[in-house]
Design a protein that fits this description.
8-stranded mixed sheet; globular; 5-stranded antiparallel sheet; 2 domains; Fumarylacetoacetate hydrolase, domain 2; about 15% helix; alpha+beta; SH3 type barrels; binds calcium ion
Length: about 425
């Protein structure tokens, strides 16, 4: 089957909705989300600048007329049903929106659109997708190396499989929450000293993990792998993912099957799913493989994305301090490789499934994507702007992650994912 061309909106396209040059959401972005406000049920939406665009409203008013869509696809609690329409229909939707909202068409559409536009801060953004399944990879070489050095030694930092396959595990989909949802500090079992009996208590080593995730927009049948060349045809778009982690719970429980209660108490995602098409101009080559790859993981095309990432910590009633600046381009394993590997045994992906990259750490200490690495297992506390220090996240702290791709014309941003940690109940 021939893959369709990505929809690339021209760099000089402008909208009659105003926005600043450095905003996350120019007319070339047009991500999808779900919003609610009092008196109406949740609806699909997009955004330009700080102006939210109600797609249900535009469709009902007869302004948006994309074929193969119905009102029932746009009045939903999640985007799952809309994503199931497929890339072709969603490309037409994004193209139609760009026509309605482009500056040249202001006199035709502006007055009809106005009742369906809202200021972003006047609405509530909802969980954009309800993922049937969630997988977390471990695709950053720098992160895997750092963790290996901390818990083993520099010579054996990477386990023997790491350079041959994208390591991953099946996470918990039910506890994925949208940005803004408070995160309750988890309790659990931990071994405070080597060789001693475990204790039950409140996690003292609550951490974030800076990740990007892709959302599946096209399923595959059980028993039918997705090839690396078709992989991006199955990905609708990306969002920011904070894989909250309780290191003390994780350290005691993970042998031999991997993460469990140290991870499944919450993961936070950003509310906008940015279309993979909007990111095509930011494609770059990833790191060269250090070991020969098996055939199903080989690709001769650039398949990484140059997306800048930033994490800040804001203490309760305090100011934000940027603690990490990284980039998605550092990933050793691309999303296409992750998906090809995930399904090579015949595993079936479902629409709305979320696959997270794993912590994205860069090569320098200020680009590490978790407190575990930034404060090096608690040995190098980080100083915040208010003079206080952190080795892990405290109650009342908000962790905010921001991601965007930038060129000389515009920025394709993801907004942010934010979560405030509240005391254990
Ligand atoms: Ca993770």
């Amino acid at each position: 089957m021939l893959m369709q061309q990505a929809l690339l909106l021209p760099p000089d396209l402008k909208s009659w909705i105003s926005y600043s040059d450095d905003c996350d959401f120019p007319i070339q972005n047009l991500p999808l989300g779900i919003y609610s406000k009092s008196g109406q049920s949740p609806r699909a939406c997009s955004i330009i600048g700080n102006t939210l665009i109600d797609l249900f409203g535009l469709y009902k008013a007869g302004i948006l007329k994309t074929a193969h869509l119905g009102l029932e696809d746009l009045e939903q609690e999640t985007l799952n049903r809309l994503l199931a329409k497929g890339k072709s229909t969603l490309r037409n939707l994004r193209k139609d929106l760009s026509e309605i909202l482009r500056r040249e068409n202001e006199s035709t559409y502006r007055s009809g659109c106005m009742p369906h536009l809202s200021e972003l801060n006047s609405v509530t953004m909802c969980l954009p997708v309800k993922p049937p399944n969630y997988t977390d990879f471990y695709s950053s070489r720098e992160h895997a190396y750092n963790v290996g050095v901390m818990f083993r030694d520099p010579l054996n930092a990477l386990l023997p499989n790491w350079l041959h396959l994208p390591v991953g595990y099946h996470g918990r989909a039910s506890s994925i929450v949208v940005s803004g949802t408070p995160v309750v500090r988890p309790k659990g079992q931990m071994q405070l000293k080597d060789g001693e009996a475990p204790e039950f208590g409140t996690s003292r080593q609550l951490d974030f993990e800076l990740e990007m995730a892709f959302v599946i927009g096209k399923s595959n049948q059980l028993g039918h792998p997705i090839s690396i060349k078709d992989a991006e045809d199955h990905i609708h778009g990306l969002l920011i993912f904070n894989d909250w982690s309780a290191r003390d719970l994780q350290k005691w429980e993970y042998v031999p099957l991997g993460p469990f209660l140290g991870k499944n108490f919450a993961s936070s995602i950003s509310p906008w799913v940015v279309d993979l098409d909007a990111l095509q101009v930011f494609k770059v080559s990833g790191p060269s493989p250090e070991k020969p790859l098996l055939e199903y993981l080989k690709s001769d095309k650039p398949s990484n994305y140059n997306i800048q990432l930033e994490v800040s910590i804001t203490p309760e009633n305090g100011e934000a301090t940027i603690v990490s600046q990284s980039n998605m381009k550092y990933l050793y394993w691309s999303m296409a490789q992750q998906l090809a590997h995930h399904t090579v045994n015949g595993c079936n992906m479902e629409i709305g499934d979320i696959c997270a990259s794993g912590t994205i750490s860069g090569p320098t200490p200020d680009s590490f994507g978790s407190m575990l690495e930034l404060a090096w297992k608690g040995t190098k506390p980080i100083r915040l702007n208010d003079g206080s220090t952190r080795t892990f996240i405290q109650d009342g702290d908000s962790v905010t992650m921001h991601a965007y791709a930038q060129n000389e014309h515009y920025r394709i941003g993801f907004g942010q994912v934010n979560g405030t940690v509240i005391a254990a109940q």
